[in-house]
Amino acid sequence: MEVSTALKLQKIAPLPNQTLTQDSKRWNSIIKHHTKLKDDKAILKTYTQMEAQGIYADSSTLPLILKACGKVQAIEKGKKIHNEIWNTNLIDDVRVQTALVDFYCKCGLIEDARHVFEKITERDLVCWNAMVCGFVGCGCFEDAVMLFREMEREKLRPNSVTVVALLSACGEIGVLRSGKEVHGYCLRNGLFYCSAHVGTALVGFYARFGVKVTRDVFEMMDFRNVVSWNAMISVYFDAGDSWRALELFEQMIMDGFKCDSVTILMVIQACAEVGSLDLGMQVHQLAIKYGFNDDLCIVNALLMMYGKGGSLASSLELFESAPTKDIALSNSMLCLYAEIGSLKEAMALFIRMRLEGIQEDERTIAILLSSFADLRNDLRNGKSLHGHVIKSAIEKNTSLGNALLGMYAERNSIQDAFKVFDDLSNLDVISWNTLILALARNGLRGQAWELFEQMQRCDVNPNSHTIISLIAACDDESTLNIGRSIHCYVIKHDIEINPSLNSALTEMYMNCNDEPTARNLFESFPDKDLISWNSFIASYVKNNQPHKALLLFRRMISLVDPNFVTIINVLSSCTHMVNLPEGKCIHAYTIRRKSSLGFDLSLANAFLTMYARCGSIQYSERIFKLLPRKNVVSWNAMIDGYGMHGRGYEAMLAFSEMLEDGMEPNGITFVSALSACSHSGLVQKGLQLFDSMVQDFCITPELAHYGCVVDLLGRAGCLFEAREFISLMPVPPDASVWRALLSACRVYSETKLAKTIFEKLIELEPTNAGNYVLLSNIYAAAGLWSEVSKLRMQIEEDGLKKPPGKSWIVVRSTVHCFSAGDKSHPQSNKIHAELKSLLSRVQKVGYVPDLRWVLHEEEDEDKIKRLFSHSEKLAIAFGLISVSGGTPISIAKNLRVCGDCHEFCKYVSKLVGREIVLRDGSRFHHFVNGYCSCKDYCSVILSFTSFSALMIRARSTCPPNLDFNCAPLPLVEAGELAPIDVLGLHLWNSVLPICTISLSKASANFCFSWKRKMRKDIHLRTKGEFLFACYLRIQGICRGRGPPGSSRFSSPYWTWADRGGRRAQAINLLGWRARIG
C-alpha cells in the first residue's frame, strides 16, 4: 500500500495556477514520504525533478536529501547542494549545517566536514555528535577524543550517541584509561543504566582488554537487547571459550530474548567447535522456528556443524533440501567429502555442479586436490584435474597453485612439483614450505637447503612450519643456522619455552626478516613478561619499522608497566621518524610515572638525543642543564646535536666545557665534534681536533674519524688535499670515505677526480646504485650528457635500483609521506593547489627557480615543472594546510635537500611567517624569516687550505660597467689585507654567481683585480641593484693564530645588516671574518 501511494505521489505534477510555495510543500512532502520508506535513490531522483522546475527544498527537507547523498555516496550531488545554498539563509540553519557535516563525514571527506563544523557559530549537541561520529567513522579516533574534550569545555553534556562513538574511538586506539573515564561519566550521569546502546558499546570496548572485565560490565547492565547479548557471546567465542558462549546463549533464551540471525550463526559455530551435535540440533530447530532456515549463511554453518559432528547424512540432507545452492554451499559439502576421504562422492558432486551450472572456483579445485592427496597411488586423477584447470582457464592464483604443488608433493612427484613451482607468479610462504617439505621427505636435504636460501633471497618470510619441515635453514651460515636448528629441536622435543627463550626466538625471526613467525611466537605465548615486550619493541626498531614499535608500545602500557628500557627503545622509533609530538607524549608519560620509573641517566640521555634529532635542540639544552650528573654519553649527545643543527661554535664550546668538567672524551666524542666542524665549515678547528685526538688523547683513529676529515676537507673545497689524506690513511678506506669525497666533487664539479673516486667505489660496492646516481649527477651538472646517458644505461643493464627520495611530515600522530610528483595523497588536490599558490607568491618577492639542480637534459619549462614537484615542497604545502598557525612545520627527508628547495624554504618561511624545520640526509635546517640555520654554507662556493696562497678564479662574466685583467700578484703574507672579488652569493632578489675564491698550492700567485678601484673598497654595481665590497683578513691562516682583535673580525657568527636598502652579509672563512656589504 505504501509503495503504491509513493508511486502516485511521484506522478503528481504542479498545476499552473498553484503558487511556488504550494509546489515546494508538495515536493517536500514527497521527499519525506520516501524517507519513511528508506528509499534514498527515490529521494535524490525527486530532488532532481524539483531542481528542473526551479523548486528547492526547505530547511526541514534539505537535511533528508543530504543524508540520502551520504548513504549512496553521491559526493558531487551533495557538494553541488552545498554550493547552491552558500549564499542563502539555509547555510545558517544549524540543521542544514549538521546535515552537511554528516554528509561529508559519511563520504570520507573529513577535512571538508571539519571546515563546515568550524564555521557553525551556534552548535547544538546533535552537531557535535555528528562531528565526533564522523571522526570515528573516518578512523580519526584521536581527533574524536580531542573533540570530545573541547565539547566538555563548551559546557555541553554528552548523550548516549556521544559516548558510544567515543568508546569506539578509545577502543580503536587502545586507550583503556580514557575508556574508563567515559565509563565513569556514564555511571555518574545515568547513561549506563538507561540505554542498552551505551552498555553494548562498553562491552565492545572492554572486549579488547579482557573477558573478565567485559563480563562484569555486561552483568551490570539493567537494559539489554539482542545486540548486547550478541556482543557478549562474540567476546567469548572470539576468546576461544565456546562453552561459555553457549551458556550465555542459554541464559539469553531463559531471560526471554528473541535471538536474531547473528546469534544463531555464532551459536552454530560454537556448537561445531565443542562438537555438541545435540545442542546443535536444538539450535537448528530454533533457526527453523524463527524462519532462518533459508539463510544460506546459517545453512552453510549447519552443514559444517553436522559434518564435523560425524553426521554426514544430516549434512547431505540439509544440502539437498536447500532451496538454492551457491558455490559456497557446494564447496562446504565437497570439503566434508574430502575430509572423510570420499573421493568418489566428491567427484560425483563436482560433476553435478557443472551440470547444474554452478561454476567452480579456485577453492573447489583446491578441495578436490586435497582429497587426491590422501590417495597415495592416485597421481593420475590429480594430473587430470590439473589439465582441467589449464583447459578451463580458471584463474591460477597462489592458493590454487599451492594446492597443485601440495598434491604433487604428497605424491613425491618432485619434477612435477618443480614445474608448478616455477610457473607460479606470486609465490608465498606456503609455496616454499610445501616444496621444501617434499624435498626433505625424499632425502634431498641439500636441495632443500638451497631452496630455503633461495626463499630468503626472494624476501619470503619463513614461518614456524618452515622450520619444522626443515631441520635447519637460513641465509646466515653461522648463528642463524644454529638458531633454526635449536628451534626445530625445541619444537620436536616439546621443550618448555620460557619467556626468555621465547623472546630470543622472536628476535631471531625478526632479524631474519620473518615478522609473521616472530609475531606468531609473541602473540601465542601465554606468559609474556616485560622482557618479552621490550624485546619485540626493540626488534621492530632494529628492523626499521618504528611505526609498529609505537603501536606495540601503546598496547603494552595498557597491560604491562614499562621500565626505562621500554622507553629508550620506543624513543628510538620517534627519532627514526622525526616524530617530535610522539616523543613529547612519551616524555609526559614518563614524567607522570616518575615515581615508578625513577631517575635513570640512560633514559635522560635518550630524551636528550631524541629532542636533538627530532629538531628541538632547545629542549635538549634544557634537559642537559637539568641533569644532576652527566656522563660521556650526555656530552656526546649534546655535541652531536649541535653539529646536526649547524651550530658548530656551540659544539666546540661544549667540547671545551666537557674537558673543563674533567670528562675524558672517547672516539664517539671526536666523531661528533669533527662532524660539527664539517657542517659549520670550521676546517682549521677540525684539523686541530683530529691532531689532538691522536697526540693528546692517544685515540687511534677509526674509519669514522677519517671519513669525517675527508668530509670536512671536501665540503671546504680542498678536494685534492682530501684525496691525498685518503692515500696517507693507515687503514684501507671504506665506501663511506670515498663517497664523502665524491659528494664534494658534486659540489665543486670536479669530474676527473670524481671518475677516479667512482672506480674505487664500485670495487667496494658494485651493487650500490647510489654511487652511479651520484656520478651521474656530477656529469649532469657539468653538462656531460653523453656520460650521463651511459651511466643510466649501465644502471638499467645491471638491474640496480636506488630508493627514491622522499619527504615526510607527522600530523596528528600520522606520518604523511611524499615523493617527487606525488599525487597519491588523499588531499593531493589541496596540496598541489597550495603549492601552486606558494610558488606564485614567492616568485613575486624574488624567488627564482635554480635550474642547475635539475639533472636532466630537457627544456627549461620541463625543468621548472620538475623542480616544483620535489617531495619537500609537497610536504611543506601539506604542512601549511594541516598544521595550525604558529606551530613550526617539521619535515624530514631521506636525502640531502637540493639547493633550489633550500632557497624555496627560506622564501616561504619569510612569506608565511612560520618556522620550517627540515632534516635532510645530513643535518637540520631551521628556516626562520628568510634565514637558514646552516647560514647557506653550501650555497657560497668557498675553499681554503692551510697554504700561504690565494687565487681568485672567475666563474662568470665581469659586470658590464667594469673590465678586469688577470695579473700576477705577490704572495699575501699573514696579517695583510687582500682585495677579493664579489663571491657567488644567494641574494634575496636574485642569484648572482660572480666568482669563486679558492686557496690552492698549485696556483698561489694569481689574483683577479679590477681596473676600477677605490681607495679601500672595490665597488661593483650589478644590475643596478646591489653595491658590494669584500675584504679578506689572512692573518692566522698560515701560523694558526687566533682571530684578529679588530672589531670587524671579532664575532664568530654570521651577521646581516640592511644599509640603505642594500643587504650586507658577513661570511665566516676558516673561523675568521670577511665582510661583504
From TrEMBL:
<protein>
    <submittedName>
        <fullName>Uncharacterized protein</fullName>
    </submittedName>
</protein>
